[in-house]
Design a protein that fits this description.
Elements lengths: L5 E6 L5 H13 L3 E6 L3 H4 L2 H8 L10 H6 L2 H7 L2 E7 L1 H9 L5 H8 L4 E5 L3 H5 L1 H12 L3 E2 L3 E4 L5 E5 L3 H12 L8 E6 L4 E4 L2 E3 L6 H12 L3 E6 L11 E4 L3 H10 L6 E4 L6 E3 L18 E3 L3 H7 L5 E8 L3 H11 L4 E6 L11 E2 L1 E5 L4 E3 L3 E2 H18 L1
Parallel strand pairs: 1-2, 1-3, 3-4, 4-5, 8-11, 8-13, 11-12, 13-16, 16-17
Antiparallel strand pairs: 6-7, 9-10, 14-15, 17-19, 18-21, 19-20
Helix pairs in contact: 1-3, 1-10, 5-7, 6-9, 10-11, 11-15
The structure holds ligand PMT.
Ligand PMT binds next to helix 11, helix 13 and strand 16.
């Protein structure tokens, strides 16, 4: 999505500048052409050479540097941008922009751009809470500037509170979000992700290798496209995508309750979770002791959430997943039909780069009308985008 995009990254002075180096790396890795403008104070924290090396372009630091003005004037920098990012944005920078002040290269360029501007503030928590600062930030938000709020945590000044620059991957997600067309506005999507755990005793459980990556990628993409997203997730190590409401669950039973409790107004359900089919009949309250040479666990069937969703489908779009080790199309087609789905995403998990706990997937999309689409190996984010393209066609046809 960022391939070939022209991004201006404005860096103002704050200890969080070092994190922006990583953001620059993520942006260039995704194919963006990034031009950097640093305020004078930013140069005190990280040298322009670091940003120059990673961006492959000279860093712009001073409006009145004649040599820099000859190479590229600030107006054209602002003019060519698809997106302007300000990170970290200090209280001073936000204050100046909100007042229309343009007294250095950074503020002048922001003033001159017609591109969307993403502001990522970072500062002392008292400064952040200051009503004057908040008024400035709200004024900018009201004018259409995008704000990614700072997170809570230990701050460099010794305080603990809201003021930390979000993780570079979170800023990267916000960048993608700002640049994504909002074709899913008004669509309410419920996505399940990750494994479920079925407890045997307080220290053991039955589960599977699902990492949650596939479901989280779909949630991220849907949110970026403007959908309202509820993500019901089994245990994972993943960060909840910004703007997504995540409800964590452990067992299949819990997932069942949460899904059916949140179905009202849902237009699309996508079940990427790997739900355990069986659970122990009895859960031992105490840790089970190693006594007998052999141990037999009695298992009983979990509720099949997707089958029940198919029985109460109404006018929702229903998408399932099938992870198979053999006869991929046969098994997936059976599930599509039996569970009354509009679409099933079939992954042959014996293939390298497909299925559980990898960043890519190789899938076939089986439609209820019998069409089968074969997608090449691609990132789970790309699979998510392709899947949502199909979902939007189905949703609009309802
Ligand atoms: O999480 P990752 O590491 O990124 O891996 C992604 C994935 C491989 C887990 C995912 O792409 C995937 O294929 N998920 C479905 C796994 C599976 O094998 O499901 P199933 O064949 O057991 O079930 C078919 C469908 O019914 C699934 O949509 C499942 O969510 C649903 N189901 C299954 C059992 C059950 N009790 N309730 C359900 O709702």
């Amino acid at each position: 999505m960022l391939q070939g995009k022209n991004i201006v990254l404005g860096v103002s002075g704050g200890i969080a500048v070092y994190k922006v180096v990583e953001l620059l790396r993520l942006l260039t890795k995704a194919g963006a052409d990034v031009h950097i403008i640093m305020s004078k104070n930013a140069c005190e924290f990280v040298t322009p050479l670091t940003f120059q090396t990673l961006s492959g372009h000279p860093v712009h630091t001073d409006l009145f540097s004649l040599s820099q003005e000859q190479e590229i004037d600030h107006i054209s920098l602002a003019d060519r941008a698809d997106l302007f990012i300000l990170a970290p944005a200090t209280a001073n920078l936000v204050g100046k922009i909100s007042q229309g002040l343009a007294d250095d290269l950074l503020t002048t360029s922001v003033m001159a751009t017609k591109a969307p501007v993403l502001i990522v503030p970072a500062m002392n928590s008292n400064m952040y809470e200051n009503p004057i600062y908040q008024r400035n930030q709200n004024d900018l938000a009201g004018l259409g500037y995008h704000i990614l709020e700072p997170v809570n945590g230990a701050l460099a000044c010794g305080w603990d509170g809201q003021g930390k620059l979000p993780d570079p991957t979170v800023i990267f997600g916000a960048v993608e979000s700002v640049l994504t067309a909002k074709d899913m506005l008004g669509c309410h999507v419920l996505i399940t992700a990750g494994p479920t755990r079925e407890e045997i005793d307080p220290v053991r459980y039955i589960s599977n290798y699902s990492s949650g990556k596939m479901g989280f990628a779909i949630a991220t993409a849907a949110q970026q496209r403007g959908a309202q997203v509820i993500l019901v997730s089994g245990p994972t190590n993943l960060t909840v995508p910004t703007g997504v409401r995540c409800i964590p669950v452990i067992s299949a039973d819990e997932m069942y309750s949460v899904v059916f409790d949140h179905l009202e107004n849902i237009d699309v359900v996508i079940k990427a979770a790997a739900v355990a089919d069986y659970r122990p009949v009895d859960r031992s309250v105490q840790k089970m002791k190693k006594t007998a040479d052999e141990l037999t666990l009695d298992l009983e069937k979990n509720p099949d959430i997707l089958t029940e969703l198919g029985q109460q489908k109404e006018d929702r779009v229903l998408v399932g997943f099938a992870a198979e080790t053999e006869r991929l199309l046969v098994h997936a087609a059976e599930k599509l039909q039996k569970k009354n789905l509009d679409l099933i995403v079939a992954n042959d998990i014996t293939q390298d780069g497909a299925g559980f706990d990898v960043d890519t997937n190789i899938v076939r999309l089986l439609h209820a009308d019998g069409r089968v689409e074969e997608l090449e190996k691609m990132s789970k984010s790309q699979v998510a985008q392709r899947l949502l393209d199909r979902v939007m066609v189905l949703w609009k046809a309802k």
